[in-house]
Design brief:
Blueprint lengths: L12 H12 L4 E9 L5 H11 L3 E13 L2 E7 L2 H14 L4 E4 L5 H14 L5 E3 L16 H9 L5 E2 L3 H8 L6 H15 L2 E5 L7 E8 L2 E8 L9 H14 L4 H17 L13
Parallel strand pairs: 1-2, 1-4, 4-5, 5-6, 6-7
Antiparallel strand pairs: 2-3, 7-8, 8-9
Helix pairs in contact: 2-8, 3-4, 4-5, 6-7, 8-9
C-alpha cells in the first residue's frame, strides 16, 4: 500500500529509497526528463536504452509525445504541467537519483515547471542539459520562447550543457563555422551561463567529429572519425545520456565524456539497419 503522495508508509526517506532501489536494481540510478519518440531512436527511449547498456537503472519523466520516424517529425503533443511535475516528484521521493538529464522539453512553461520542481525538491545531483531546439532534419522542436526559459531558469541549475552547433548559434546569435569559432563560442557560453559546456561539432565538415569541453579554465578536445553514409537520429540524446550514466557512476566529467564519445561513435557505426520506411501521408 502507498500513501496518496506516492510514499511508502511508516518509513523514513532513507529507508524508503533503500527498499525501492533494492527492489529494482543494484546499479546507480539516473533520471531522464525528455520527450517520447515513437521510432525509439531518440528521446526517452534512447536515453533508457543507453542507461541500461552502461549499467545504470533509468527513470523517466515524459514531457511530450513525438510522432516521428528518422527524417520526419509528424506531430508533437506536450503533456500537462501537472503530470510533468508529478513524474519528477514521485521518483525523486522514492529513488536515490545519482544524476539526471533533460532532452526535449518542448515549451517555455514546461522548462519553467521542471526548473521549479528541481529547486523545490532540492535535487542536488549532477544535471546534464541537452538544449534540444531543432531536429537533425531542421524541424523546430521547441517553442521560440523556450530559449529564454532555458537561459534564465534551467541553465543556472546545470552541471553541463551540451549544445550542438545549431543550438549554440541560436543561444549566441552568431554563426559557428569552424574550430576557431567553436572555441570562441564555447568560452562565451561558459562565461554567460556559468556551467561546463560541451560544444558538439558533428555538423562541421571534415574527417573527424570534434567536440570541445569548456570546464574550469580548461578546453579539452574529443575527436572521433566520422562514420560515413549513416543518417543519424538521436545521437545527441544518446551522447548526453551516456555522459549522465558516467556521472551517476561517479566518473569524473572529462573521463565520462571520453567514454560517451566512444559509445556514441560505436552506436552510429553499428546502427540499426532499417527496412523500407514508408513516407508519411500527412
Amino acid at each position: 500500500m502507498q500513501r496518496g503522495d506516492g510514499r511508502l508508509p511508516g518509513r523514513s526517506d532513507r529507508q524508503r529509497r533503500r527498499v525501492i532501489s533494492a527492489g529494482v536494481s543494484n546499479n546507480p540510478i539516473a533520471l531522464t526528463i525528455a520527450g517520447s519518440d515513437s521510432s525509439a531512436g531518440a528521446g526517452i527511449q534512447a536515453d533508457l536504452k543507453t542507461f541500461n547498456t552502461l549499467g545504470v537503472y533509468g527513470l523517466s519523466a515524459v514531457t511530450c509525445v513525438v510522432a516521428e520516424i528518422p527524417g520526419k517529425v509528424s506531430r508533437i503533443e506536450p503533456v500537462s504541467l501537472e503530470i510533468v511535475r508529478e513524474q519528477i516528484e514521485v521518483v525523486a521521493k522514492n529513488f536515490p537519483i545519482a544524476a539526471m538529464k533533460t532532452g526535449l522539453l518542448c515549451s517555455a512553461v514546461i522548462i519553467s515547471a521542471i526548473a521549479r520542481t528541481i529547486v523545490d525538491l532540492r535535487l542536488r545531483v549532477p544535471l546534464v542539459v541537452d538544449p534540444v531546439i531543432t531536429a537533425t532534419t531542421g524541424d523546430p522542436l521547441s517553442e521560440a520562447d523556450a530559449i529564454n526559459a532555458y537561459q534564465e531558469e534551467l541553465f543556472p541549475l546545470a552541471s553541463l550543457i551540451t549544445p550542438n552547433l545549431d543550438e549554440a548559434s541560436q543561444l549566441l546569435g552568431e554563426k559557428i563555422s569552424d574550430r576557431a569559432s567553436m572555441k570562441r563560442a564555447g568560452k562565451e557560453l561558459k562565461r554567460k551561463f556559468r556551467a561546463a559546456i560541451l560544444l558538439k561539432g558533428g555538423h562541421l565538415s571534415g574527417r573527424h567529429a570534434v567536440d570541445f569541453l569548456f570546464v574550469d579554465d580548461l578546453v579539452l578536445e574529443f575527436s572521433a572519425p566520422f562514420v560515413r553514409g549513416v543518417a543519424t537520429h538521436g545521437t545527441g540524446c544518446t551522447y548526453s545520456a551516456a555522459i549522465t550514466a558516467g556521472l551517476a557512476k561517479g566518473v569524473p566529467l572529462a573521463k565520462g565524456i571520453g567514454v560517451a564519445k566512444k559509445f556514441v561513435t560505436s552506436a552510429i557505426r553499428n546502427h540499426h539497419r532499417w527496412g523500407r520506411i514508408h513516407a508519411l501521408k500527412h
